[in-house]
């Protein structure tokens, strides 16, 4: 069986790793082994970070909606329940944007949510 030298495949693989490590500190951008470890770790952090970003933005939107709802004397959960009962289907991103940039429109939505909550509330029955 003939001897196989890896040649360009090895060089290309290492060049790709070192290119990904460009800008890393000291040996992490110069030496292949430490660059490979740093690149693997950075790719892992990037993957996890993309998942955390979604969580962080949803949390931010909820805080903003809650603050806007408090101005209309509603809690966040009551506001969202009222929106659902009123049949208004807006996502949290849009609601947070309205709460920040267009308080009048958000207040109108809050009054609709309040009205839907009052209409859906069970009426107290008189004891016979």
Detailed description of the structure:
This protein is mostly helical. It folds into two domains: 11-52, no CATH class; 54-118, c-terminal domain of poly(a) binding protein (Orthogonal Bundle). It has helices at 8-20, 32-71, 76-86, 92-101, 103-120. The termini are far apart.
Quick structural summary:
The chain is mainly alpha-helical.
Q: State the helix count.
A: 5
Task: Give the topology string: H per helix, E per strand.
Answer: HHHHH
Give the fraction of residues assigned to helices.
over 70%
CATH topology term of the largest domain: c-terminal domain of poly(a) binding protein
What value does the Rg take, in angstroms?
A: 28 Å
Total strand segments: 0
Give the averaged pLDDT, no decimals: 94
- Number of individual domains: 2
Overall body shape: rod-shaped
Shape-level CATH architecture of the largest domain: Orthogonal Bundle
Q: Give the structural class.
A: mainly alpha
Task: Give a topology summary.
Elements lengths: L7 H13 L11 H40 L4 H11 L5 H10 L1 H18 L8
Key traits:
c-terminal domain of poly(a) binding protein, mainly alpha, 128 residues
